[in-house]
Write a structure and sequence with these properties.
about 130 residues, alpha+beta, Arc Repressor Mutant, subunit A, three-stranded antiparallel β-sheet, about 30% helix
Length: about 130
């Protein structure tokens, strides 16, 4: 969990960290993905290259570790809902099945839905300060 949060959002806000962790846990709970955190994070082409092997050096490590523990103990970002995906907030994805639920920590988080059920097809304005800690 710490590795996913570190490499996907380590220079980010606590909200961004918790949101990444929440996506990991949503995937763990889904039958579409491996059923362990390491299985999800280690899946090929899903998270940052080298996520399972690269060295983690940063002054942010205490905050990243705290957020990872919080997610493993049950904390979730209140706006993630069922989102299992995210991309950099600056990236424009041109698909008709992306329903955005949150932008935080430099990432836009979304659910994949049938096109007729998408009501937010563009990343939302960034929101921070919703998680404890």
């Amino acid at each position: 969990m710490t590795r996913a949060m570190f490499f996907e959002s380590h220079r980010s806000s606590r909200d961004g960290l918790i949101a990444v962790g929440s996506v990991v846990m949503n995937r763990v709970e889904s039958s579409d993905f491996p059923n362990t955190v390491c299985g999800v994070v280690g899946q090929r082409n899903q998270f940052a290259p080298g996520v399972m092997t690269r060295e983690m050096n940063s002054r942010a490590m205490p905050e990243v570790t705290e957020a990872a523990v919080a997610v493993l103990l049950g904390e979730r970002h209140p706006r993630i809902q069922n989102a299992q995906f995210f991309h950099a907030a600056s990236y424009h994805a041109n698909y008709n099945n992306i329903h955005y639920v949150l932008t935080a920590g430099g990432n836009a988080f979304y659910e994949k839905r049938r096109p007729e059920h998408v009501t937010r097809s563009r990343p939302l304005r960034a929101v921070e300060g919703l998680t404890g800690g």
